[in-house]
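Entry 14. Structure prediction run on the chain below.
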Amino acid sequence: MLALLAWSVMPRRGHHAGGRTRRSRRVVVLGPILLFSFLFYFWTATTEANPVTFHAHGDPYSQLTSAFLHGHLSLATRPPKALTALAHPYDPAQNAPFQARFHDLALYHGHIYVTWGPTPVVTLLLPWRLFGLGSMPVNLAAILFGWVGLLFAVLLLCWLVDRYLPETRPWQLALGAVALALCNVLPFLLRQPAVYELAVASGYCFAMLGAFLLASGGLGTRRRPWRLALGSLSVGLAAGGRPSLGFEALLLVAVLLYLARHERAGGIGDLARLGALLFGPFAVVLALLLAYDAARFGSPLQIGTQYTIASVNVAQLATLRLSYLRPGLHDYLAAPVRFTYAFPYFTLPTPGAYSPSLPQGEITGGLLTTTPIVAIVLPGLFLLYRQRRRELLAVLVSLLAVGVLVLVFVSVAFWNTTMRYEADFATFFLIPALLVWFSLPPMRWRRVVMVVTSLVIVYGCIVGIAISLYGYYDKLRVDEPGTYWSLAQLTSPLPTLATIIAGHPVLARVVVPTLPTNGNAGIDHLGTTRFVLVPGRLLELEIFAPSSGRWALDPTFRRAGAARGTVNLIVRSGGPAQIVPMSGAASGVTLHLSLGLNRVTLQGTSSLPHPHGALVVADGLTLSPHQAS
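Output returned:
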């Protein structure tokens, strides 16, 4: 891959010593970034007791691979008669016993189908199986697609820099490559890679491959037909992974117009052949995808979503509604990212439902808040227009147009939002933003502007790492607490410094250590939420203190009304366990805190051998701002 990098980004103005020197420097600068990106992706996708194994896998894509090998479009798993006999099999109230087994799979005419695109199967899982290498694990497949997509995103950035902005400094290009690796949403979706994330990663991979091949094959000093054809094929495969990426076909139109305008097509016949070269492979893949859906669901435009077995009745939820556009754009562009004291210090919100009749979405952070450097794009386009860099301006507008169309489509397609879908369009905004940054002309306060914009890019990278540490379910904390709390302890000086400035300890988060959460949850409403301690379950408090000493949890603890026997609250905060008898009256708790990060556990116990129900309740948890006596 590094050899491909060196060859692909070679300046196209001759094979001279200067070009070789530039290539060598490029490999030295970008090679380690790509290597560490792969290692980070691999670590992210294989932690949480999720190692790479090549035994038989039961995920839907592995099942679809087996089905293709046997000449079938449906999975070999047959739906139980009890499911097909239901009066309304898509009603979650009726299909609840079968949701765990068939969740988000489509039931149609007595067969089970996969609703996600077939690109991961035909391009990786099936060849892997045919070569006798076993069953490709989902996490490894997602890693490979994600990293190869990153590689070609970096190649595209380098190629555009060499053609239009050769004065770009190496450190800027290196920071841009880091941003492409960490701000493309891939680290977030690789935290718990499943069939959903694999589909997204495959679409991202072929979208970046297609963009690179089209740019390098059509915009250079000479036309490269094989790159144009493979670029067209890649755009089709991107749509086969993520239908929203079919809008990348706009780049095919842009390249055709560019070549026609620059008179590289000698006449109508040459233009027709060029059009066939550019659109033929994409059209073939698109026709195969339409035929694939028609053979499964009786319509070339039906991917099976309305037939899925899910926790909501998808058949009754409308798709492709303009009413979804405004809330979708808000969530995907402007949903806030908040700083918190709880590791990893940034949290994404769970967006509200579009209406009371629609289900709530999954955690989503807006592109402008997670990657604020993209805000430079619009003023940058105006600046390029003033500088008369018309060709570079056209390239950036083409990439942005694809990003906007994909953004609009994913906003109106479904009734809620989810963070993983931002991988479909984020890089189409990020690459133009980086190129605008590279093109900033000499100006007054240039050094200040460069420092500020660099810090904005670094901020986006930090957010990308932070949200990747918890993903949708914060399972790194649950499955690998040693790793999680080592990272938390390593970074704890930052929130500790904040508490020193504030002058009092901060209760950052309350979680059940053995249960996943919704993202980085447990940080809101600590002073008002009711916390319930049941037998055998701990509450863990994450507290940052500005100094060592004794502090108080306000008296909100009392025994539950139905609790029997003698009830105590066991408190562990670094020293010997503290036993606090519970009664009907509210009681407070004294904590022995140390400077920095403290993990305090609360546990309810009863004198009865097998207690049932709640033992202790707390109507909010609030630290006293004053040191306890």
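The mean pLDDT is 92.
Filed with the rest of this week's runs.
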